[in-house]
TrEMBL record, chain A:
Keywords: Molybdenum, Oxidoreductase. Residues 28-134 form the Aldehyde oxidase/xanthine dehydrogenase a/b hammerhead domain. It comes from the Bacteria. GO terms for molecular function: iron ion binding; oxidoreductase activity. This is Xanthine dehydrogenase family protein molybdopterin-binding subunit. Pfam families: Ald_Xan_dh_C (PF01315), MoCoBD_1 (PF02738), MoCoBD_2 (PF20256). SUPFAM superfamilies: CO dehydrogenase molybdoprotein N-domain-like, Molybdenum cofactor-binding domain. Gene3D superfamilies: Aldehyde oxidase/xanthine dehydrogenase, a/b hammerhead, Aldehyde oxidase/xanthine dehydrogenase, molybdopterin binding domain.
From TrEMBL, chain B:
Gene3D superfamilies: 3.10.20.30. This is MoaD/ThiS family protein. It holds the Pfam family ThiS. The lineage of its organism: Bacteria, Pseudomonadati, Pseudomonadota, Alphaproteobacteria, Rhodobacterales. It comes from the Bacteria. Coiled coil: none annotated.
């Protein structure tokens, strides 16, 4: 079947909203999350963490800890693989410090003991002698000439000469002549913006249970978005063969990009090897904040020129991303996504990846894009206001379309930005009256989406039901989506499927559940595996009828002869073929393994109403509408949930969430009481509109929706808040103190 | 056959300032190998991970995608997500 055979056809199952198959398990507590694993003789691990932002590790004395009754093992960097380089080297350095502790919370040793309490007590007995070094935690300060150097070998070949060694990667892209473009503008707005680091805020902390014997064979149970990458990374870090480590992904209590790497898992394995017992480690919330990946904080400059009719003549942006102690801040994605919604003849974007004495950043839904969108869409909002233009009309006038040369270079294939803007323009929200003190903001956003290595197996049972094995942890309702797509191909009821997230020993390699790829790539693989099974079912029917295989087709769960020439046979239902499959050729399964490369990019448009209390600076988001192109919504309720989740997290990022470091370089708000995520009373009803412009690279047109939804909120909320407050807010989060300062500054300026 | 490859300008310092380079390649794999061979300073960047955009379709990792002289080809940062 050609890729696009099903596109734009009526579906029987796709687009319906059945109950999620894992729902009952999760609401009754039957589902097993990361911390729900136990093993006979299990020990508990605890990690010793640096209290200093930057310090040389002079000596570690584990004697007292090892002497404590109940302690079975203590590990330091010496217990891990030596001579790792590249990405594995950075991960190891983050998992367990070598010569230097690079941030407050950096792991320097770990213990395993017979109880969690003894392990924590023993961790306090590990004596570490530090030589404290100067530190830096701010991105602009880290680029300054006199900034302390974290490591003078991290910069790669892209970094121009003369920059501080803390600048470790550089990106520069664009096309046209921006100076000529600015010269043609009627109005130019140039502004600077900052955003603070935020955490993905998943409700489940990192947790794992590991066993590793001296024979180099191990098992790992952990909460992760990608157990194959966990397998590969952990095996490298503890120095065993990849295939000898079997990894099972638990149910996951949220990840949002923060569980795409490893932190405690290699430590548990190293402790297990030393103690010859299973070891369980569960992070507390403070450890999650101090030592797992928040986003990058940013410092950005954006300049855009516009004509009186709203045509953008030129745009440029500089995006400086603080990525913590190791390279990898997603500044390329900031730069490449910043202006992607717009068809620009002249555009230039520069990105800097800057290391500092903070925990290594980790991906957080569309990494790098939300912050860049905040800066760019704020400037566009200012231009619209100053020129008296409608912000949606201006975005429509400049919108990227099929064939547009993207700001990052290539031409877009079929995309749905214009459709989201048209839907926004006609949505009742856009013209609803505002109350005094309220403001409205709009913003567009873009994300690439991703394919990645994918394997799926689909096994039919004798009773005509079906088991699907996927390798992508279910972080957004993918079990339901896979069952719906398989039901569409096989033509049997959704309830006849059970979808299992297989472990690393039972399926081929699978890339991580990230990049909005699961419904796209695992979905495509599921469809192909189901088609493989259908071909085998048709073959069995053909054998029974004594006709050629290609004279049989599959429809609505039945094998049917393809026409009068094929013969006059009654259709055979799936269950009748599987009932006898053991005696007609053996079990029937479908398989598909590939790296799909047709992920379609995605755009969204958000509308927000906000109300600002000028006395307290408190902001309330009073109405929110998300409009996004899903390509095709397989299970619309989950698509809406992704839209709403992105908006809710965006509200937190825009209004309250931030990492606050003291002058001593230590994190000051490492628990949820001090790091304020939105609660139910902070959120309005979040309305959603699903736009469906099919992705040409997927059988049913799926684009993936997990990430685009968090790109526009920061800017849309900032534009709404700025309109309500009467002053442009340039620094996120727009917490009450920052809003009050902005109001005060505006008043003093007269 | 020879194909043209657009480079983001951060890479241009590694190719003597060239915005576009031409190499002999019939697939994405041959393209990356030819770039690393003809422009050795690009090799570490390619080794660290890149994607290739072919007529707007972003190829994240496949080395077997066919290429022809009429394709619009961009070397890009390796895509991933959150």
């Amino acid at each position: 079947m050609a890729l696009d055979d099903h596109k734009n056809t009526d579906f029987k199952f796709i687009g319906t909203r059945p109950d999620r198959p894992d729902g009952l398990d999760k609401v009754t507590g039957r589902a097993r999350f990361g911390a729900d694993a136990y093993a006979p003789g299990m020990l508990h691990g605890a990690i010793v963490r640096s209290p200093h932002a930057h310090a040389r590790i002079v000596r570690i004395d584990t004697t007292a800890a090892e002497a404590l009754e109940g302690v079975k093992a203590v590990v330091t960097r010496a217990d891990f693989a030596a001579d790792l380089s590249g990405e594995f080297g950075f991960v190891l350095e983050n998992v367990m410090a070598g010569e230097k502790a690079l941030y407050d919370g950096h792991a320097v040793a770990a213990v395993a003991a017979s109880s969690a309490l003894i392990a924590r007590d023993a961790a306090k007995l590990v004596q570490v002698v530090y030589e404290i070094l100067p530190h830096v935690t701010d991105v602009d300060a880290a680029m300054a000439a006199d900034a302390p150097v974290l490591n003078d070998t991290y910069a790669d070949a892209t970094v121009p000469a003369g920059l501080h060694p803390n600048v470790v990667r550089y990106h520069d892209s664009g096309h046209g002549d921006v100076e000529a473009g600015f010269a043609a503008a009627d109005l130019i707005v140039e502004d600077s913006f900052k955003t603070e680091a935020t955490h993905q805020g998943y409700i489940e902390p990192h947790a794992c249970l590991a066993t590793l014997g001296n024979d180099g064979k191990g098992e790992l149970w952990c909460t992760t978005q990608g157990h194959w990458i966990a397998q590969k990374t952990c095996a490298a870090l503890v120095g065993i063969d990849t295939s000898q480590l079997r990894v099972t992904a638990s149910e996951i209590g949220g990840g949002f990009g923060g569980k795409t790497t490893v932190f405690i898992e290699p430590v548990a394995l190293a402790l297990s090897r030393k103690a010859n017992r299973p070891v369980k480690i569960v992070m507390n919330r403070s450890e999650v904040f101090r030592a797992t990946g928040p986003t990058s904080s940013t410092s950005m400059d954006v300049k855009i020129g516009m004509m009186k009719d709203g045509t953008i003549t030129a745009a440029q942006g500089v995006f400086r991303l603080q990525g913590g102690a190791f390279p990898g801040a997603p500044m390329e994605f900031s730069a490449m996504c910043a202006f992607a919604p717009y068809n620009l003849e002249n555009v230039k974007q520069i990105g800097y990846d800057v290391i500092s004495n903070r925990p290594k950043q980790a991906a957080y839904r569309a990494p790098g894009a939300p912050m860049a969108s905040f800066a760019v869409e704020s400037v566009i909002d200012d231009l619209c206001k100053q020129l008296g233009l409608d912000p949606i009309e201006v975005r429509l006038k400049n919108a990227s379309r099929e064939g547009t040369k993207a700001s990052y270079g290539p031409r877009f294939q079929r995309i749905g930005l214009v459709e989201t803007l048209e839907a926004a323009k006609t949505h009742p929200h856009y013209t609803a009256p505002l109350k005094p003190g309220q403001g409205r903001g709009v913003s567009c956003g873009f994300w690439f989406n991703h394919g990645g290595e994918t394997s799926v197996s689909l096994a039919l049972s004798e009773d005509g039901t079906c088991q699907i094995s996927v390798g992508t942890p279910d972080i957004g309702g993918s079990r339901a989506s896979m069952a719906l797509m398989a039901a569409e191909v096989l033509g049997i009821a959704y309830e006849n499927f059970r979808v299992t997230v297989a472990d690393t020993a039972t399926l081929g390699y699978n890339d991580v559940s990230h990049g909005s790829r699961v419904t796209y790539a695992s979905g495509l693989a599921t469809i192909k595996a189901a088609q493989d099974a259908v071909a085998k079912l048709c073959k069995r029917a053909a054998a029974k009828w004594g006709i050629p295989e290609d004279a049989v087709y599959w429809e609505d769960g039945f094998a049917k002869p393809s026409g009068a020439n094929a013969g006059n046979f009654d259709p055979i239902p799936l269950a009748e073929i599987t009932k006898d499959m053991g005696s007609t050729g053996g079990p029937i399964s479908g398989h598909f393994e590939a790296t799909p490369e047709g992920a379609g990019v995605s755009f969204g448009t958000h509308i927000v109403d906000a109300e600002v209390d000028p006395e307290t600076g408190k902001t309330a988001v009073v109405r929110y509408t998300v409009i996004q192109d899903a390509g095709k919504a397989i299970h619309p309720t989950y698509v809406e949930g992704q839209f709403q989740g992105g908006a809710a997290q965006g509200i937190g990022w825009a209004l309250n969430e931030e990492y606050i470091y003291g002058e001593d370089g230590r994190l000051q708000n490492s628990i949820f009481l001090d790091y304020r995520v939105p609660v139910a009373s902070d959120l309005p009803m979040i309305d959603t509109v699903i736009v469906e412009v099919p992705n040409p690279g997927h059988p049913y047109g799926v684009r993936g929706v997990g990430e685009t939804g968090i790109v526009p909120p920061l800017a849309a909320i900032a534009n709404a808040v700025s309109a309500a407050a009467g002053v442009r807010l340039r620094h996120l989060p727009m917490s009450p103190p920052r809003i009050l300062r902005a109001l005060k500054a505006q008043a003093s300026e007269g | 056959m020879r194909v043209e490859v657009h480079l983001w300008s951060g890479l241009r310092s590694l190719t003597g300032g060239l915005e576009k380079v031409s190499v002999e390649a019939a697939s994405t794999g041959e393209l990356l190998a030819a770039l690393a061979r003809d422009y050795p300073q690009l090799a570490p960047v390619i080794e660290a991970g890149v994607s290739v955009a072919v007529d707007g379709r972003i190829i994240a990792s496949s080395l077997t995608e066919p290429l022809g002289p009429d394709n619009e080809i961009y070397l890009m940062q390796r895509l991933k997500g959150g």
